[in-house]
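WP5 quarterly update. Target: Abortive phage infection protein. Source organism: Streptomyces curacoi. Length: 372 aa.
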Amino acid sequence: MEKTKGINRARFLSAGAALGLAAAVLPARSAAAAKGGLTRRGVVYTVGAGATPGTAWSAARMREDVRVIRDELHADTLDVTGDGVERLTATAVEAAERGLHVWLQPTLGDVPEREILDSIAETGRFAERLRRQGASVDFSVGCEFWLFVPGIVPGETVLERVENLLKGNVDWEQMRRRLTRFTAKAAAVGRSVFHGRLSYAAAQDEEFEPVDWNLFDVVGIDYYSYHREPAEYVRELRRYLRWGKPLAITEFGTCAYVGAPEAGGMAWDVVDHSKEPEEIKGDLVRSERVQAACLVDLLEVFETMGLYAAMAFEFVTPDAPHRPDDRRHDLDLASYGITRVIKDRPDDPASDWHWEPKEAFHALARRYARCR
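Structure tokens (predicted):
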């Protein structure tokens, strides 16, 4: 697959925030909700092709990561997302074989609508085979279609669509009509090939992205709000329960610097991409403690509400390496990853690398371990 077809989710989280915009189907409330606590606790694992030779897809690396996610992070769910059906399915199999619940979600962008629907169908058929073999699987038909699917918002690429959104070069009513039409198509394709729980990952602003959740079995929300009081989160999330369906937080998290939680879904927007090499804007103060505290606080809210699932975004961001001795080029500051990436040769695109756990990893691991 060509690199231009892949999407680096860390760069485009809930772009609407920048606009000032606000098996059998599960019953309305899960058993966990009835007694309190989440049903599923997990992490997002993105399976893109990689932006550089050094971050290219590696099946061996993936297998070790999945082992760590189960045995050291103590997650019980893996949200497998990204592009490339072979990468998605290989990761889903590994997770299932290790006894993890699989939340499988193809995220393909900047290609014709037909290709995206074909990817949903192919991935969904695989998810159904996995489910029939006894694996625990939910299938999501995609993520924030307004951003990734050409023809809903003007622009041939994600970058162009984001720019048009920021500038207001959008016919909002037409956008919503196109979004509703494509979401219905995707749901129909997913339903035709997958017979377990079907979902979708929507932006959290319902005015911006209205979704007919009657099409799905689980309400899925990419959630990046910031509030000072837990009650405000509960008030905001409670409106999604009116559909009488389980609510999954398909993404939540922040970056590791002071002020990142307050920036919500735009915390990633601290990199000057016009520079070569790219560099961090402003004088950010790195703080892994801030990131860890934010994730734990949000998880506590989700647990209290007894939601169906919560998946922290994300396990690792290979294309945002940490440079502890060079703050200006420490791209990990713009990463939502709960691990930091260390390159053997920082200036070499082909360099090998490894990840190290951040404080957020350890904080989540402690919480998840208590619930296993």
